[in-house]
Structure formats: structure tokens, C-alpha cells
Design a protein that fits this description.
Elements lengths: L4 H8 L3 H6 L2 H8 L4 H28 L3 H29 L4 H4 L4 H16 L2 H19 L10 H8 L4 H17 L4 H21 L3
This protein binds the ligand Cc1ncc(C[n+]2csc(CCO)c2C)c(N)n1.
Pathway: Cofactor biosynthesis; thiamine diphosphate biosynthesis
InterPro entries: Haem_Oase-like_multi-hlx, TenA_E, Thiaminase-2/PQQC, Thiamine_Salvage_TenA
Family: Belongs to the TenA family.
Amino acid sequence: MTERYSEQLRALSEPDWSAATEHRFVRELCAGTIAPGPMRRYLIQDHRFLDSFLRLLGAAIATADTMEARLRFGRSAGVVSGEENTYFLRAFASLGVGAERDTDPDSAPTAGFKALMREAAESGSYPAVLSVLCVAEWLYLDWAMRAPRPLPADFVHAEWITLHDNPDFRQFVSVLRSELDRVGPGSDAECRDVFRRAVALERQFLDDAYA
Ligand SMILES: Cc1ncc(C[n+]2csc(CCO)c2C)c(N)n1
């Protein structure tokens, strides 16, 4: 039996995929034991990631080759712009994040992600855009769905997990994987390159929370 194309890409991205999904940040977040310092640093950097991510979703809306996919990306853009953004604002208030939200420089992995997302968006290539989106969503679902229950009491921890493991999000990851299975093999070299670089950056992004 041949493996799904998206699963082949995931396997090729090892050992970075497992290093990210089993990262110290993930373990401490899911246990509710993560120190405020790394949580703050992570969220400040991640909020910047979200801005470029929205641009990438815009590129997916623009480059998708079916209307059905375009509609799905449009709905996801609404979620990221709504619920997800308010989580950041409430979490910043709870963690006492002030001016550093704007003044801290971009970390190297944040800058790398912004560059990769811009590159994919500007390529105009639906398979390249899908490769980055698929990593950013599927890798998060992969660790979030394995979080031990009950979830931590602090909403800063618990909500970051449920944002990445809920029925709508699972369905979105399933669409992204099906789309990549469908169009990826026609642009194999490009997808392998972009997917692998995105997974390496995910791992570095998590490492950076403890830098
Ligand atoms: C470095 C980094 N990689 C992936 C995600 C996950 N993520 C980012 S935007 C988005 C879409 C809607 O939730 C998702 C799942 C993240 N937050 N930070």
C-alpha cells in the first residue's frame, strides 16, 4: 500500500518533526508547569508569526485551484482574525506583557518563518503555500491532540491547546492534507524543500522560547 503524500513529507522531515511535537515547551505547556518567562517570549514572537500567517492564508485563497478550497481558507482566515487574536490579547494581559510586545526584536526563527511564508506567498505556487500551511497546522494538531486530560487550569495554557485541537481545526488539517496529497506530487521537489524547511523552523521556534 502506498502512503499518503503528506505522510511521506512528514516522515522525511524527521527527526525535526518529533523533536518539535515532543518538545520541552509542549510538555511543560500541557502539564501547566511552564514558567512565565518562556511562555511570554513564545507568545510575543508567535503573535508576529500570526500576521505573516494571515498573508499566507490570503495567498492560499488566491492560488487555490478549486472554489471549495478557497471557501475553506476564507473561513479559517476569519477564525485567525477573530478568536485567535483575542486569545493573544487576553494572554498578554494575564502575563503582564507590556511594551516588549512591540520592542523585542524578532528572533531568528521568527524572521526565518516570516521570510519562508513571504517566499511561499510570492511564489504564487499553491503546492508551496499548502506545504507551509500544512506544517504550521498539522504539527500543532499532532501535539495538541496528545495533550493529557484534564487540561491545565490556567486559560493561558488550556486555551492554547484547545485552539489547536477542536473539531473545526481537525477538519481544516484534514482538508490541508488532502489538498497536499492531491497537488503536491506534481511539484514534489518544491514541496519537499518547503515542508522540510518549515518543520526545521518550528523546532527552532520552540527552542527559542528558552533562549
Ligand atoms: C510557530 C507556529 N507554528 C504554527 C502555529 C500554529 N498556527 C499558527 S496560525 C494557525 C491557524 C489557526 O489557528 C495555527 C494553527 C503557531 N501558532 N506558531
